[in-house]
Amino acid sequence: MKTYVLAGLLSLCAGSVAAQSCGGSFSSFVDALKSEATSKGHDAATVDRFFAAVRQDQKVLQADRRQGVFQKPFTDFARRLISANRLNTGISKGRQFASTFNRIENEHGVSRGVLLAFWAFETDFGGFQGDFNTLNALVTLSHDCRRPELFRPQVFAALELYEQGDFDPVRTTGAWAGEIGMVQMLPRDILENGVDGDGDGKVDLKRSAKDALMSGGKMLQSLGWRAGEPWLQEVAVPDTLDWSLSGLRTTKPASDWAALGITPRHGQIASGLEASLILPQGRKGPAFIAYPNFRVYFEWNQSFVYVLTAAYFANRLEGAPVFDAGNPEPGLAGEQMKALQRKLADRGYDVGKIDGILGAGTRAAVQDVQKELGMPADAWPTAALLNRL
C-alpha cells in the first residue's frame, strides 16, 4: 500500500544520481549493475549467481503507475481501509502479541497501535505480502528512469542480504515496489533495522510476526519517532478560526491552539508539544492536531491520505472514537483535480506531478491561492475555487 518516494530512504540514496544510469537495454543495464557490484568489492561469481535469473517485470511498472486509490478524500479512503473486521483483528493481535508490543514500547518507544495499523494496511496482518519477485521488481524500477535514486541502492542491499543467506533472488517475493515481509520493509531497511524478535537466530520478516514488528519498531525509532509522545488527535475547531493557520506548514505549541478555542474530542491536549492543525477536507470536515511524531509517518509513506488514515487507525486501535466526518463541501476528483493542478502550475506553484492527487504541494498552493482570492484558506479545493481560477 505504499506510495513512493519514501523520504527517509531518499536520504540514504544521496549519492550522485548522475552516476546511477537508467534506461536503455535491460540486459546492458544488468551488466552495468554487475560491474558496479564487483567494483564495490562483491565476489564476481556471487554477483553472477545473484543476477542470473533476473528479468524485467512489466506488471511492476503497471502497478507503479496505477495508484488511483490515493485520489480518494480522507473520509472515503479511511472507510475503505478501516473495516470492523480489521479493527477487531487488530485489537485481537494486540492481545496475542502483547509481550512483543511491550518490548517494542520499552526498547524503541513506539506505541502498539502505530505498528498494528501498519501491519493491517501493509499486508492485512501478514495475510497477503505480495507475490512479485523482489529482485525483478527492484531491478525493473531501477532501470525505469522515474526514481532510480530510490531503487538502485536497494538492489545492492538485496545483494548483501543474499551474501548473508537471507535473500533468494529466485524465490524471495513481496510487494511490487520491492518491500518484503509483514510490515513491508525494503532491503536496506532490513539490513539496518532487522531484529530477531523471536530469538531463533535469524531475521524472518515474512514468517515471524515478532521479527517483523520488532524490526518495524526499530525502523520508526531510527526515523525519529519520539517515545511516549502522541502523533495525532481529533479536535473540534471554532468557526471563527483563521483557516490560513491550518496545514503542516504552520506549527504552534498545542497550548496556543487551545487558546484559539481548539478542543480535543478524546483525551487531553499535549500542551508541551509543537503541533499543526490538519483539515483534510476543509473547515467543514474532520479536524486533527498533528504532533511531531505524525511527521515521522511521512518517512514510511509519502501519501498524505494514507499517512493520516494510518495515524487515525492507530488511535482507534488504542480506544479513540470514530472521527466526526462533519459536512465537508464536495471536493474535486480525477480530471477536475488535474485541471486545478495545471492552473496552479501555470501560476508558478510547484504541485509536483499533474496526477489528480491532493498531495502536500497541491494543498499548499490551494491554500495560498484561496488566501489571495479572499476565500476561506483551508487548503480544500472545491469547484468554486476551480471556477475562480
List keywords for this structure.
Lysozyme, disordered N terminus, Helicase, Ruva Protein, domain 3, mainly alpha, 7 strands, five-stranded antiparallel beta sheet, PGBDSf, 18 helices, 389 residues
Structure description:
With 389 residues, this protein is mainly alpha-helical. Among the domains are: 7-65 and 129-185, Bacterial muramidase (Helicase, Ruva Protein, domain 3, Orthogonal Bundle), CATH 1.10.8.350; 232-317, Lysozyme; 335-388, no CATH class. It has 18 helices and 7 strands. It has helices at 7-12, 26-39, 44-51, 58-64, 74-81, 84-96, 98-108, 112-123, 134-143, 148-163, 187-193, 209-222, 254-259, 292-300, 304-317, 335-346, 360-372, 383-388; strands at 132-133, 173-174, 232-236, 252-253, 263-264, 274-278, 288-290. The strands form 2 sheets. A 5-stranded antiparallel sheet has the order 4-6-7-3-5. Strands 1-2 form a two-stranded antiparallel sheet. The longest helix is centred in the middle third of the chain and has 16 residues, at 148-163. It is globular, with a radius of gyration of 22 Å. Mean pLDDT is 92; it is low at 3-20.
Shape: globular
CATH-defined superfamily of one domain: Bacterial muramidase
Mean of the pLDDT scores? 92
Oligomeric status? single chain
Instruction: Give the neighbour order of strands across the main sheet.
Output: 4-6-7-3-5
Which residues sit in consecutive blocks of at least 5 with pLDDT less than 50? Answer: 3-20
CATH architecture of one domain: Orthogonal Bundle
> What is the level 1 CATH name of one domain?
Mainly Alpha
Q: Percent range for helical residues? A: 40-55%
Q: What is the percentage of strand-forming residues? A: 5-15%
CA distance, first residue to last residue: 34 Å
Could you say what the CATH topology of one domain is called?
Helicase, Ruva Protein, domain 3
Instruction: Give the strand tally.
Output: 7
- One letter per element, helices H and strands E, the order comes to HHHHHHHHEHHEHHEEHEEEHHHHH
Largest sheet: 5 strands, antiparallel
Count of helices?
A: 18
Rg computed from alpha carbons, rounded to a whole number of angstroms: 22 Å
User: Helices and strands: which structural class?
Assistant: mainly alpha
